[in-house]
Amino acid sequence: MKPFIYDLTYEDWQEWVRANKEPGFRAGQIFDWLYVKRIGSFEEMTNLPKGLRDKLAEQFVFVTLTEVARHESKDGTVKFLFELQDKNAIETVIMKHNYGNSVCVTTQVGCRVGCTFCASTLGGLKRDLAPGEIIAQVVTAQKLLDASGERVSSIVIMGIGEPFENYDAMMKFLKVMIHEKGLNIGQRHITVSTSGIVPNIYRFADEDTQINLAISIHAPNDALRSKLMPVNRRFPFADLIEACKYYVEKTGRRLTFEYALMGGVNDKPEHAEELAKVLKENIPLCHVNLIPVNFVVERDYVRTERDDIFTFQRILERNKINATIRREHGSDIAAACGQLRAKHMESGKR
Known about the structure:
Number of strands: 12
Pfam families: Radical_SAM, RlmN_N
Strand order of the largest sheet: 1-2-3-4-7-8-9-10-11-12
Number of helices: 12
Strand content: 15-25%
InterPro entries: Aldolase_TIM (IPR013785), Methyltransferase_A (IPR040072), RlmN_N (IPR048641), RNA_MTrfase_RlmN (IPR027492), rRNA_lsu_MTrfase_RlmN/Cfr (IPR004383), rSAM (IPR007197), rSAM_sf (IPR058240)
Subcellular location: Cytoplasm
CATH architecture of the largest domain: Alpha-Beta Barrel
Mean pLDDT: 93
Number of domains: 2
Distance between the termini: 31 Å
Shape: elongated
Largest sheet: 10 strands, mixed
Binding site for S-adenosyl-L-methionine: 161-162, 193, 216-218, 294
Cofactor: [4Fe-4S] cluster
Structural class: alpha/beta
Low-confidence stretches: none
Order of helices and strands: HHHEEEEEEHEHEHEHHHEHEHEH
């Protein structure tokens, strides 16, 4: 199969035009057609010679994201289920905030991490996405927003899959997103979330970027985290904390910890006290994002009571740990990652 036209970074295009004996400025023209004008065919690249357009068509293909479903929430959230060329399905979500539009992208078809409260892992991992398949999600979202004169202002890599298990493709995606000749998304407006793939936390710390990092922690200790997140057996809690310390020390950037609250499981005052102690002693430059767990039919977890959520937050803040409660988006359209795909998979079986 030919590579996707979106698979190449700007630097890759510079190399490609040199290798194909084209003038250097052609790289900028190609990038402009893809990410500023956002065309969908080689024929539309009208300022390129026909021979060059033919060469591009011979060597590359556009990513095809076929819209299977689109659900729009009363809060403005739009969730897409897209079918890829190989008939696998992925999800992409546009979330509207008072500060702009955020797109949540998927990096894998399915997930092998196996978090016990998440719909993304249902059915396991099918394959990694190519860089172009990740990029196409943002381009497609931007095309939708073009109709109303809006733009994608931020990106979260928190959809289906573990981004740090598709690391190289994720980094190519990021390089395209932040490039000034492309969509030009500010680095500090992009957040990558990982379940704790320790070697790549170190690797990401050494990338020298301003991109935000979020760690899905969900428990204050090794034993409970292993029950909730099998990845903890590969990369134990203590190793994760050491990697987080390295990240903060190397980058000087505040780290976000995501903590999904599950009724009667990890939401008790003693859990909050233990979490506060671990973070205060090891990673005081942090922020905890408390997430009331989404109900998933195939899972048994229930949402933490409202008063208990606020109690958990107060305990963290009393211990000088900054904590907020995530605003929910699209709860009326199953917008949590993996839910729409799981329904699609089940209907396919029927």
